[in-house]
Amino acid sequence: MMDSAAVSAMMLAMHSTGMTDTPHAPVVGEALVDARGLVRRFGSFTALDIDEMVIPAGITGLLGPNGSGKTTLLGLMLGLHAADAGEISVLGLDPVKVGPEVRSRIGYAPEHRRLPEDIKAVDFVRHIAEVHGIPPTPARTRASDALWLVGLGEERGRPLGTLSTGQLQRVKLAQAIVHDPRLVLLDEPTDGLDPSQRDAMLNLIHRIGTEFGMSVVLSSHVLEEVERICDGIVVLAEGRVVAQGDIADLTGELGGIELECGDTEQARTALQRAGLNVSDGERHGVLLVSGDADELSRQVRDALAGERIALRRLRPRTAQLADVFLEIVE
Fold first, then answer.
1. Roughly what angle, to the nearest 10 degrees, separates helices 4-16 and 195-210?
2. Half-sphere CA count of 292, side-chain side, radius 13 A
3. Radius of gyration of the CA atoms of the chain, in A
4. Domain range 252-329, its CATH number among 3.10.180.10, 1.10.520.10, 3.40.50.980, 3.30.70.80
5. According to the per-residue pLDDT averaged within each range, which of 90-94, 197-201, 292-296, 326-330 is highest?
6. Which residues have CB under 8 Å from 113's CB, separation 6+?
7. Hey, what CATH class is 4-249 in?
8. 250-303 residue pLDDT tens
9. Per-residue confidence (pLDDT) for residue 241, from 0 to 100
């Protein structure tokens, strides 16, 4: 992958050769996607039944178990199929009534990797740019730039059928951003990537959604990815929105502290002797101490130091996204 300075230069170059001259400037709190009473059925099966959903500008994680309706919701945003009831607006427009106009402002990377095997990567991305209205010459330049940006500059002349799974994921990201969209929909963009490639991909998505103003909806089943780069989440379960909002508001501190020591039982005895309320954490070897985290930290350190018990880790007890997600879905 390219360094930060090279990425910045590349993205600015792409903006200057495309339909806009400057990066988009998302309006804080602006609703990019707004759904009310949205229902989508396939025969007798109800895939989606959403009372209300709002996705603001920024980077939003779309979470849910398999079969919860994530891909169906992305299809409705793109206007690929119509709702059976209710309404949805994307960028202030109806994606069914003015589908081509909506899709011209959206980048989309599907979960599947069924790409034409005999076409070169740069020609495929160039074609997508031209479909979005970019003239042939700048389209080819932007295609090459987009592939360099995602780390495929040297491989841009290779046929898609010769690329690895991880490389195809990066091709899909390149074609999703080549036309400088206002909103980018990414369906499982790290699937098939090794840990190093996943880390680089997440860093790139974060830069796209922050420095260059392309709002992102990231559909993923990997909670750590969403917690790492997203501002907010929408959680689906059985086709319904069961939670939505800023991640910071849904997680945050629970009160108390958690700690790990060299000898868990000795630590428990020492802390109880100091008058502290101690319980077992969810993981083996982790102790929870109830009370005010700031005051507890000093008390715990003093109690353990007095008994010469090694303290490996101490931190305020917080709700992790995984805990919140499991509680909501269950």
1. 50
2. 3
3. 24
4. 3.30.70.80
5. 90-94
6. 165, 168, 169, 172, 192
7. alpha beta
8. 765 556 777 788 788 888 898 888 888 888 776 677 787 877 666 777 888 888
9. 93
Q: Which residues make Cβ contacts (< 8 Å) with residue 298, sequence separation at least 6? A: none
Contact assessment for residue 270 and residue 304, using Cβ atoms and an 8 Å cutoff? yes
Residues of the chain with CATH 3.40.50.300: 4-249
> Two tokens at 234?
């929408």
Q: Strand runs (DSSP E) across 210-310, as ranges?
A: 215-219, 232-237, 240-246, 253-261, 278-280, 286-289
- Answer whether residue 107 shows pLDDT above 90: yes
Q: Per-residue pLDDT tens for 164-212?
A: 988 999 999 999 999 999 999 999 999 888 888 889 899 989 988 988 7
Alpha carbons within 13 A on the beta-carbon side of 14: 31
Contact 36, 87 (CB under 8 A): yes
Which residues, 6+ apart, have CB-to-CB distance to 149 below 8 Å? 2, 7, 10, 11, 14, 174, 177, 204
User: Where in the sequence of the chain do the CATH 3.30.70.80 domains occur?
Assistant: 252-329
Hey, CA dihedral for 305, 306, 310, 314, is it positive or negative? Answer: negative
The sign of the CA dihedral 216, 222, 227, 233 is positive
